[in-house]
Write a structure and sequence with these properties.
By secondary structure, this protein is α/β, with parallel strands linked by helices. The chain is built from five helices and seven strands; from the N terminus they run H-E-E-H-E-H-E-E-H-E-E-H. The chain has one domain: Aminopeptidase, CATH 3.40.630.100. It is globular, with a radius of gyration of 15 Å.
Length: 195
Amino acid sequence: MLVMLDELIATAGVEEEMRLAGSIGLMALHGGLESGTAEAAFQVAAATGASHYTIVQPNDMAWHIPSIAHKPGHSRQLRLFLEHIALAVSFHGFGRRGLEDTVLVGGRNRRFASAIGDAIKHRTRLRVVMNPDSMPTGLKGMHPDNPVNLPELGGAQLELSPGARSSEHLPAIIAAVANVVTSEMGSVCPNPLTK
């Protein structure tokens, strides 16, 4: 049986956190379950003045709600976050044999995704896959109901392998994403609701 977002965030020990700041938003929907993702979203937001939204499960939980099942109607904080931002980055973790040191850069804003992918390539020796057609099904971040694609300008979804989330590589990925977010801040409307 599929657990819904409202059930998850009502569960004891689950932390849903949102901070509204800049018009670019960093997300991690599976914090705790996908190690390092919530920390990465928080650190990039703190370094750049961006907004952030995270859900962190306690260590004894392992409820995986697919991204497309994170409905804004099931969470007031998620709805307010998505209404506030114009562009998003969503951090996820994955594990697939043969892709242990890989970053998949999906999402429907392909210009933004490519800029992030190029920045990660420049700072790491990880394999960075930027063509959605070359990504495993379910990891492309292209579905229109995926929260990363709901802001006005869409966004980029980063699927990080265990190697990418290691202490060797995650700081460089955080720095790369922060660089791109900083450079985008000036060209993104300060608050999409004021248009």
